[in-house]
Amino acid sequence: QVQLVESGGGLVQAGGSLRLSCAASGRTFSSYVMGWFRQVPGKEREFVAATNWSGGRTYYGDSVKGRFTISRDNAKNTVYLQMNSLKPEDTAVYYCAAGLGTIVTGRTSPSNYPYWGQGTQVTVSS
Hints:
Elements: E1 4-7, E2 10-13, E3 18-24, E4 32-39, E5 46-51, E6 58-60, E7 68-73, E8 78-83, E9 92-100, E10 115-116, E11 120-125
């Protein structure tokens, strides 16, 4: 089992950048596929990005490709989401998620990730 805590959210102007962090507890962090999702009120949770155990394989949602980068540091039990060229439509609560396994491509459903953080708010002003 793994516990996840996100940080780094905040208010930023359109075109700006933020980096989210997700710190994980547990000795087997490197065993998990790590993902980021986001959600706005009244809408389903949307897949943002995922990375495999080494960080060597990544997968992105269409709406963030080319702007967001997911990475991980297994020595620090931390996964990151670097968000550049932010848009007002990126405003959401961002969640970190973890799931066992090795497949990253297409792993976009929240049901693929049993473990979740509490979320961090990102607000992009126009």
